[in-house]
């Protein structure tokens, strides 16, 4: 776990089979303030990277998530300077207009092929949720995921209980990004309940 995103990018850029990290977590594009963003990297028994994910929290007290995404400020500290020509984002998820306050973003989630299908999604998301709760207790936590993650039920395994299509129709031509992602999210109360439930289940398993 760390907060140095120069280090994070140096690691993730060398991972075969992983898509490039989005601008949200790139220090050359985003302002990743100390205490407001962190990453988690998991290694296998041989010290080889098997998993990565990153989180950051945005202050959306004077705006909402839909406006934040559409302005491209979710990706870039200064869209006018950092965004390439013809870059755009459209958010058609209705609830995004009501997501405000301190809002945590959970992204860049990657798991190596040989670890997939082993029921790790819930555990890995639980690590991120627990750390985000301890650090920020944000009003919301959200992720943007491709339709296949919804169709395969992986978003359910993560623990997210809300979802809406077309949360981020993102075009970054200079980065070869053309995505139409679902918005998935939890409220502060739901995240707290999820963490408590997971902790209780863990204790019960250990005692059984």
TrEMBL record:
Top-level taxon of the source organism: Bacteria
InterPro entries, alphabetized: Acyl_CoA_acyltransferase
SUPFAM superfamilies on file: Acyl-CoA N-acyltransferases (Nat)
Keyword vocabulary terms for this entry: Plasmid
Name listed for the protein in its UniProt record: N-acetyltransferase domain-containing protein
Species in which this protein is naturally found: Sinorhizobium numidicum
